[in-house]
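Sat 14:20. Reprocessing the chain from the morning session after the first attempt stalled halfway. Input below, unchanged.
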Amino acid sequence: MFNSIISLGLFGLASAVPLTSRQLPNYPPSSSSTGFKLVVNVTDPAHDLSPSVNGLFLQAIHTGAGLNDAVLQVDGRIFYQNGTADEIRYNQGNILTDGGNPPFPSGIDVQNKDTTDADGKHEVAINGGAGTKGVSLALFPVPYTILTFIARGTFVACDQFVPYYKQNFITIRYAYDIINPLTSQFEHDIPQGCVAINLIPQCDVLPQLPVPAIASHQFAANVKCYPDVRAIDWTKYGP
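Finished this time. Tokens:
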């Protein structure tokens, strides 16, 4: 059910959920934490990659000084949402992770609509700095907490060759929506070899920073997250 709701913009396919669940909002148990990992949920299992990427974690692989490509692996980085209450409310905060020695902040960068990687996809990276404005965790009235980007589209997982390592990784890219000229409606434009995904925060402990550190957790926000994303049976929940 979760797959259908998010991929359709929180509408439709309620018939997949028992009537009693449709009458009242019914969402999986959540908690809160300043630290979290981001876990993949494939929005359309019929188009999952093989082997499946469902349940993998967002991680980063080094591609240069302060540069890291966003990929999926069996374990992931710990992130935090950084910003004042007003910044987060108005989508002006940042999703950060710490690395290096001394630790420095790295943000999630999303290539703009007019820029692509060598394969024509819009790269998602985890680079030193604040990252791209507009990358945040969804707030009310969105019923599920997921990673979002202010530009209309979806995150995708792609089986892609990474020249720096001369091998394939499951990369994270962003697919901007396009307008269907027949319907004048926005539609997902999923690149070949990719699958649409949601990145869901799983609660974790935000490590204490050593001294000295370039990073700061002063404005690390307490966010809604899920204790064990992979254990959730989404068919039980909705609308």
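The first strand starts at residue 31 and ends at 33.
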